[in-house]
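Person: Show me a sequence?

Helper:
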Amino acid sequence: MVNSGASDLILRASGRPSVRVDGRIRFLPGSVPGPGPLLEVLEGVMGSERMRIWRECGSVDAALDLDGLGRFRLNAYKQMGEPAVVLRRIADEAPKLEELNLPSEALGELAARRRGLVLVTGVAGSGKSTTLAAMIQHQNERVERHVITMEDPVELLFQEERCVISQREIGTDCAGFHEGLRHALRQSPDVILIGEMRDSETVTSALDASETGHLVMSTLHTVNAPQTVDRILSFFPATQHEQVRMRLADNLAGILSQRLVPAAGGKGQLPAYELLVSSPQVRELLAEGETAELARVIERGEERGRVSFNRCLRDLVAQGRVELPEALAASDRPDELVLALRGITSSHVRSSHAPRPPRPGRDGLRMLGGE
């Protein structure tokens, strides 16, 4: 896995071992040991308490240090009643924002804030943890703060520079995110990082912490800013939605949604992102529950701190860093991306009553390529 530069190693009892390189699955020679031997290995790595959780819940997370190889995040799970495990490689040192092909200046400004809620969202494996680690490291190099992280499990180990960084592991150092958050407020924090917001209790505690003058950073498994707001509201009964929207309007500092796209030439992946930084207009839309309008506001990008996925993808294609088919596959609105790349906005097309362009497929790609 390390030699091939893979991000993940997938092992299933008696199955074919495989790795993920540049987002694509590759099979390795040989086969994984059967259920008995694999279970024995997991027992030795995970420990009795985590194996109890694995037997009861069907999956459990842990971290693993291997001399000479590095640190890995491990998820053991069941498939067809038999053991399986996925290991993800963790960087040896915290990345720098400038190295991630993300809007580093805007993210640095968010990391420098003294209070508020900063969310990094995306599907599993899209680089959310890496982005948050880079934002923590940005603070670590520049300001004196006490940073408390709550992770499941603890992944990258920070080397303290100007910050005190207390890393707490769910299940080992605290029972859960909500419990850890409740006690974190008594531990003199300036910044609180929550590995993931999974329920209403955690969201409420995060909003409480930001309202009392802390910078709270966390992740959600959502694909864009409007869906992020809707997901947070879905944790609560409808009777509380207005109150939660008002609290979000007052405390949300910014949302970065990201997804990885294969780089041109098939070597590596690049992040495509959507950025929404709070402003008076954004706060008004949140308070009024106009989450659908948020998408249009981001797409227009009229103010600094707003970048849509299509704008980001358009720039990546124009720079030759991402191939057009990959950009269209990653876009939420591929029709509009085709128009943008042709130098025509969808609003201009509608106002001039021009025929609607074909949906991106073979015909759409051929038309664009021909021009």
Remarks:
- The chain has two domains: 8-90, 97-315.
- The first helix runs from residue 35 to 46.
- DSSP finds 15 helices and 14 strands in the chain.
